[in-house]
């Protein structure tokens, strides 16, 4: 069973199929960017409000690199590094050598043997230890006069207060989910009345000989979420192919991992770091491949498919991490104009970089949302609060649905949620939300959503 | 290692956290609040505060839906669980059928062969597309790209027999040694 | 329980064995394979073996130099030697990660070697406390031991000498400069041949010239008698061949040749679909465009065939040229004008049996072609007096698989670039291009700076800066004039846009920025790896990076 249009597009991407009169995906993308150009201009006046973001002199001449101005700027900049892996190790080294003095680093991972071909701050005796801790200690021992504060944990463990202490955030992450989270956090933190609430985010990513570095000025330039469509999700095969018409060794491996494992071990998820589990999957996949006359199932491939392994090498990480740190250096010191706003790098056929301005997406669910501060009378009923929203002339909401991060205040649909949340209409706002809470409002009239930051008025 | 873990715990405890609405949650809220689905699809939320995990019941018996269809599965109520993670809509929702049913595109473990749930998912699709696609499976089971091969072969070779098997299985009957769940409403 | 399902596993299998597809065996990769897992997915065991045999020499332990080595030591080159006669200073500590305060006053070569060696115990490390100039001027035999020479911050005169030393030894040479926001590197590697270029889309289905076995196989499909499931699982190649045969019958034996005809053929296929979204037919329709480009030997490969090295095979010919010649002969005989079939089938909507059978047919044909090429290689070897098995069968197989995409790069020598055959008109033209990603100006400035002594372009105060700018500007003028650019134009160029580059270069104060050095270290290491492994395509021949604009440009200088 298929939804045909979705299928057609996937196949065209997969098979390198093109029509002679088709324009390429790439040019479509750029076309789309250009259409959004005016949107960015509207918002770009914020750059002038913020001293350190101002572009340097028009004549293109720089400050002498050993000038005190540069040193002072670097001393004053507290920078957060997210990820202490392939990019993170490079980033920490570069920032330390560049002269940043107060660096923080977050990573939830521990060191694995397969990290050692590129994560050069780790040795085989470090396997199993926290990346953030080992990396910090190593760099501090090597480079005198700097302080690196590690956090062994998840970025989600930290809140707005924590992130607001930094001037710049630089990310070397391997997960889209984590990037989306920090991006949303930083966009959300922007307060139009306080320029320092805007934290430039520099994001790097690599895959084999390819990579990208980009600068995100939350709410001003295109954010990570704006570009989500550009990233491929991991390859997955139709489940009926896996079940009944396998052709590739990968199909046999997915059969073992997606269908066979849960059937045999319904209560246990396999652990991709457990060699016994991978071996089990490899055995099953091999047998299935034999049965169907398919060649090419190896342990190596099994591991690659099951763990969705992305090739990673020291050289690409060095290029992308350095590109990111160079932008951090330029932003922190204003020594030269910084990247606006995206650099793509390809190194398998020669060396090729492409820099361009990725455009904001008007209906981006993160930076396209309207953020409003709102005073709420705790005595007001939710029902009346809804009416207030509907009467707001600038939004013209029709059927608003309201939620906080943990609660459905009132949902217009589906019926079950409407019914479950209906009693809330007659409750007082003071009983439903608290001071500082954020209410997400969605409505057919809104391209995405509206975020209401609640200031609770004193009860009268 | 002990030292590290205690440090982690200490740091984490020191954080005062206010939960944030994730981009995925915003998107799901929008998907749900603007959902227009026929009465044949019913959603239930075990925890109305949690909109990322819910159940769906499809009763493909509304003659208004597609009057021309034979309605093999008329009279049944089919249960699914939806689990959406914080990578939505980059990743599709995870959907499973919680009953053991006889269907060419749903296997006995509850796996579903619907292209937009896997290989053809993309962020512009929504929960609406998934629900409609899921319902369509019961109106137009596809025998050519099966997940339950035996059921598909029955459908291809003998529609009448297939229909009887469906009826039998829906009542919780035993067919070819497999005992199915009773799904009659 | 899970453990009952498991059999015992042999640990410590050779890497090679694990990477052979199709073998079924139970083995968890050994520690080395685990450590290098993420890179083996790019260059496989053959690339890794090449790296492990490499002996790399670094001249001058600059930040850029040690960053390059870091990115070569981590993936596991065989050995490296650092040549540097300086002692470690305070400034070095601040800029170079592979030094710390304990190194101050020690030989830089030794200290950086020690810190770099820690990165990978499998790599052998050496150092020489003498200057690069000593070996370049007085001890050429020193370079015999290396498979690769990397030199940072060499002056033009020494670079030229070193280039001719390396040229004489057939040793690839990398020359790197990195100052402030600007970085530049140059490859001189004589003739560089690549079999595994790793193209992104390498499909060669021979749709317009199907071999008889395919046509025979297509006949076994009776479209009319199929049920909907069978019909929906015929591989698109079979669909295309089936309906192309019918088309040919009504078109004088010709394929759909024009755009209009191909559209007509697509319509015909559309009519054959049993449902509006029959996936295999959609694939067939989507692949009709391939008929627009008939199967043939690509022009670039034809050029390789025409080279004298391909014509005149001798005892000294490299494996690449002997196999190339064998394939050339194959094309004119067994191949009937076409290269050996690669034998690779992409995935397509199909049932397992048809797909595997079709795959078998392509593989058989590839095997047949390979055997023919092997026979030709053997007779060539015998003709020139070598043993018939002097070339590894796997190498011949790789060449046959990738024949469409093999590549020969002939690097210009540094002597040609700087003295004998200067690309004057090209360079003046690049200088006039207004493309913001055009970085040729840095080449001019780097060369200008080489005309001055180091202390001439250092700025301590405003007065010194003005003098330094003036000196560098004058040197820039000389370099531009040497490109035969008229004086008035040179003046105009300097006044209009080159001056800021001169000023900035002076303000860089001759120092490396750690980020730019690290970035150059990544770029250079990547290209070194490509040259060593003979996989992927290295640049030809100069890459210039500008950290202000975050752009790279490539020039053939």
UniProtKB/TrEMBL annotation, chain A:
UniProt pathway annotation: Protein modification; protein neddylation
Pfam families per UniProt: E2_bind, ThiF
Residues the record marks as active site: 240 (glycyl thioester intermediate)
Record field: catalytic activity: ATP + [NEDD8 protein] + [E1 NEDD8-activating enzyme]-L-cysteine = AMP + diphosphate + [E1 NEDD8-activating enzyme]-S-[NEDD8 protein]-yl-L-cysteine
Superkingdom in the source lineage: Eukaryota
GO CC terms in record: cytoplasm; nucleus
GO terms for biological process, alphabetical: protein neddylation
Family per record: Belongs to the ubiquitin-activating E1 family. UBA3 subfamily.
Biological function: Catalytic subunit of the dimeric E1 enzyme, which activates NEDD8.
Protein name per its UniProtKB record: NEDD8-activating enzyme E1 catalytic subunit
Organism: Mortierella isabellina
TrEMBL record, chain B:
Class of the enzyme per the UniProt entry, highest EC level: transferase
Signal peptide as annotated in the record: none
CDD domains given in the database record: UBCc_UBE2F_UBE2M (cd23794)
Entry EC number(s): 2.3.2.34
Coiled-coil ranges from the UniProt annotation: none
Domain called UBC core: residue spans: 23-175
Catalytic activity annotation: [E1 NEDD8-activating enzyme]-S-[NEDD8 protein]-yl-L-cysteine + [E2 NEDD8-conjugating enzyme]-L-cysteine = [E1 NEDD8-activating enzyme]-L-cysteine + [E2 NEDD8-conjugating enzyme]-S-[NEDD8-protein]-yl-L-cysteine
Gene3D superfamilies: Ubiquitin Conjugating Enzyme (3.10.110.10)
Keyword tags: ATP-binding, Nucleotide-binding, Transferase, Ubl conjugation pathway
Active site: 113 (glycyl thioester intermediate)
Pathway: Protein modification; protein neddylation
Protein family (similarity comment): Belongs to the ubiquitin-conjugating enzyme family.
Name under which the protein is recorded: NEDD8-conjugating enzyme UBC12
Natural source organism: Mortierella isabellina
TrEMBL record, chain C:
CDD domains tied to this protein: APPBP1_RUB (cd01493)
Annotated keywords: Ubl conjugation pathway
InterPro entries reported for this sequence: APP-BP1 (IPR030667), ThiF/MoeB/HesA (IPR045886), ThiF_NAD_FAD-bd (IPR000594), Ubiquitin-activating_enz (IPR035985)
GO MF term list: NEDD8 activating enzyme activity
Highest taxon above the source species: Eukaryota
UniProt KW Translocase keyword: no
GO biological process, one term: protein neddylation
Cellular component aspect of the GO annotation: cytoplasm
Family (UniProt): Belongs to the ubiquitin-activating E1 family. ULA1 subfamily.
Function: Regulatory subunit of the dimeric UBA3-ULA1 E1 enzyme.
PANTHER family: NEDD8-ACTIVATING ENZYME E1 REGULATORY SUBUNIT, UBIQUITIN-ACTIVATING ENZYME E1
Protein name per its UniProtKB record: NEDD8-activating enzyme E1 regulatory subunit
Organism the protein comes from: Mortierella isabellina (Filamentous fungus)
